[in-house]
Specification:
This protein is α+β, with helices and mostly antiparallel strands and 331 residues long. Helix content is 57%, strand content 24%. The chain is built from 8 helices and 6 strands. Strands 1, 2, 3, 4, 5 and 6 form a 6-stranded mixed β-sheet that branches. Helix 4 runs antiparallel to helix 5.
Length: 331
């Protein structure tokens, strides 16, 4: 008995569908494994490319440096060195250009107070270098003045904070012209002051003993006077020692500030133009000139009249000359 055609084809179709589904399930995990394996490699390649591109970018476009003076330009071991057996008197000086003298001076004063110091002197002045003026009409003139602002500051800060103070104000500077640091060893000067003070005290003690010992009145008076002089020397030695210790404890810093040249423009009254505009007219000036001439003539006549003796002498001389000319000659 022969089977129908559809019963023979159905098993073949079922086997084909089963094989196709199995192949899909096997391929999908393989693709996933390949994608998972390739992902780290792709990330590593991207990182390498970014690392290679970063230096190239820095070489092509370097970062611009901030304008101004670096703090290292105001650093020196002269201001930082310490020795327990030595006493240093530190001084510093700097000349620099700033954007605004007044604001910089205020900022420096604030920094001095922050460091525990004080300001000794603050002098700011404008130096006029050139002035030009021209008329603009209506009795006014335009005046242009070229000037430069300069400042001089003297400050005192604790010696151990000198370098920190100078580093802090470096940001206020646009250009450093000059700097000078000094640390003078003052241990022997201080010892000299101490010995002078001790001598004055010993002398005062000896004179006091001499006064108490008695003696003639004149000798006592001389001893008392000498004792007063010894006290004065003792006080001066004490003051000198305190001043010396203050110079050791606080450094002295001199700062010279300057600003770019500026131009000031202003309008002012043209005095000459105002006088010309409000002065007398032509006829008035002509009348004044004629009056002045007439007065000069009158004064001349008066002056000539005052010389009448001279005129008489001249007249007598002229008459005598004429008679002498008319006198006939002998012969």
């Amino acid at each position: 008995m022969r089977m129908p055609r559809m019963y023979r084809v159905a098993p073949v179709l079922m086997l084909s569908l089963l094989a196709l589904s199995c192949s899909k399930h096997e391929v999908a995990p393989a693709d996933a494994d390949m994608a998972a394996a390739s992902a780290p490699a792709m990330e590593e390649m991207a990182a390498d490319a970014a690392a290679a591109a970063a230096p190239q970018k820095n070489l092509e476009a370097p970062a611009p440096q901030a304008p101004g003076v670096a703090a290292s330009q105001l650093a020196s071991d002269v201001l930082a060195q310490t020795d327990p057996q030595r006493r240093f008197i530190r001084t510093a000086a700097a000349e620099f250009q700033v954007k605004d003298v007044y604001r910089t001076a205020l900022a420096i004063e604030d920094e001095v107070a922050k460091q525990g110091g004080f300001v000794v002197d603050n002098d700011i002045q404008a130096q006029v270098q050139r002035v030009e003026s021209r008329p603009i009409g209506n009795g006014m003139r335009r005046e242009l003045a070229e000037y430069r602002l300069q400042g001089e500051l003297t400050v005192r800060v604790p010696s151990e904070r000198t370098q920190g103070f100078l580093r802090a104000i470096a940001s206020q500077m646009e250009f450093l012209d000059r700097r000078n640091f000094s640390a003078r060893d003052a241990q022997f000067d201080l010892l000299r002051q101490q010995l002078a003070r001790q001598r004055a005290q010993d002398q005062q003690q000896e004179l006091g003993d001499a006064v108490q010992a008695g003696g003639k009145l004149g000798d006592k008076a001389d001893a008392i006077q000498a004792r007063g002089e010894a006290r004065s020397s003792r006080d001066e030695a004490l003051i000198a020692q305190k001043e010396f210790e203050d110079r050791v404890a606080f450094s002295t810093i001199t700062l010279s500030l300057r600003q770019d040249v500026q131009v000031r423009s202003r309008e002012r009254v043209d005095v000459d133009a105002v006088f010309r505009a409000n002065g007398p007219g032509f006829l008035s000036q002509l009348g004044d000139a004629l009056a002045v001439g007439w007065r000069v003539c009158l004064q001349t006549i008066v002056g000539l009249a005052a010389l009448w003796p001279a005129w008489l002498v001249l007249l007598a001389g002229a008459i005598g000359w004429r008679r002498w000319r008319k006198k006939p000659t002998a012969g």
